[in-house]
């Protein structure tokens, strides 16, 4: 079975549950719509938390940079990949309004996986695992509501993870720039 056929089949199987249960549809639409903003607020709320504020603030800045870098990587990919949405290809039943941009990669998956990965890479395991669970739920919701193929959210997850890894390797804790940024507010 070619990869596209597998991708379409798995996407169809997840989206095939859409429209069956109004409560689950509502939940998935809600998760898809406010998942990223809720995670951003949850991250921002950590700014004043914890006994080791300088480390926490470093992680939060690194998380924001990971988020932005992941989305920037997506914009570069979109210059070369022009994948149509699965609902335009007759693969899925769409539960929300149509999107005007391309399908691959998923910005929602990128953003949420960048957040989770940044926390995990910086040793904040407990929060990182909560953010990872939320990222998986957001990614599934994007397929469930019919706006993405499974490979779109996997690709988005990868760009978020790559963004977090690059930031982890380039933005070092305790540097002059880090101390300046983390001492603000």
TrEMBL record:
Instruction: Tell me the superkingdom of the source.
Output: Bacteria
| Cited Gene3D superfamilies | Phosphatidic acid phosphatase type 2/haloperoxidase
| Ranges for domain Phosphatidic acid phosphatase type 2/haloperoxidase | 59-168
Task: Print the keywords alphabetically.
Answer: Membrane, Transmembrane, Transmembrane helix
- What sections of the protein cross the membrane? 27-48, 60-84, 128-147, 153-171
Matching SUPFAM superfamilies: Acid phosphatase/Vanadium-dependent haloperoxidase (SSF48317)
InterPro entries from the entry?
PAP2/HPO, PAP2/HPO_sf
PANTHER family from the UniProt entry: AT30094P (PTHR14969:SF13), SPHINGOSINE-1-PHOSPHATE PHOSPHOHYDROLASE (PTHR14969)
Name listed for the protein in its UniProt record: Phosphoesterase
What organism is listed for this UniProt entry? Rhizobium loti
